[in-house]
Specification:
There is one protein chain. The chain is α+β, with helices and mostly antiparallel strands. The chain contains nine helices and 13 strands. β9 and β10 form a beta hairpin. It starts with a helix and ends with a helix. The relative contact order is 0.05. About 2% of the residues have low confidence.
Amino acid sequence: QWGKDAIKTINLFKIQDKQNYDPKKIIKEREKKRKQRIINEASSLKQIKTRRELANAIKQSRTKNNSKKYLSAIGIVAVVAAVILYRNSIPPTWKVTSHSGTFYIDQKVEIKNIEAGDILETKNDGILSFKIGDNTSLTLYKNTKAIAELNNSKSSVLRLEYGKMALKSVNEGRHLIVRTPQFKLVDDGSFSIIEINKAGMGEIKVKKGRLFVDINNNRLPIFKNYIYTVGDIAPHFANTSKRFLNALKRIKAPIRYDAVLKQLLLSSTENDALTLWCLMNNSKQGYMPFVFEKLNSLFPIIGDVTKSGIMKKDKLMMNSWLDDIEWQLQ
């Protein structure tokens, strides 16, 4: 180690006049100091007469060395934590990445960073793409209007008035929230397409990952390859059977066990598992056992998840079962 330190010292001296230092002399001084430190430690050991004194001396030596290591480690952790907190406290920048045709930002035809309150609008031939920070990309297609509502360290909020929008993001601990006249979308790391009319009616298609839709005081998860049509009671698999989809369109809350629900259960497959989970999560006790038995036959509950817990709508058990279903559907 003293040799490495000597080399570092030599490198520092190289910035100065080469005639002002002597490498051999520096190494000799380092060696002299090291030997003197060993002599001092040896002389202190001579004063030790009992095993207890020896143990105490070793303990003090370790404590002294470890304290230096711990202080160094704590310092490094503190610096890293400070950097992370500082970065997370800075709201991400909304930056335009590409555009074509006719578009407006804050009612002006100009390229600038998007700020809270700016109105984003594309016309018949317009397309506008932008990024929020490093991990969220959005594209507004033709005849689309949106408003940048809020941008802070915890979340970014975009209000989609109407039109078609593509969203691609990575879950990084903060979320993008998309508000519409009918629902609120909370992105959890996905690639999805949202398309609505001026009344807020339309659909959400998830190509990758998952997101959540808050509608009518109810939160619906949407997985990869699922579609949610505004007004339906639950999302459905993109390529589900017509019989299952027709039954789903006819089911309204509060759900009853009737011919429509019976048709839906009989025509359901593994790909319809998320729909069944949403129906059961939003159901009343009367018909829950029927939906549970069907879903459990497709994806049996495992681990700490129990039927009684599911019947009581235990959140931890319901979410654990949902995660297991999503993992098996991938």
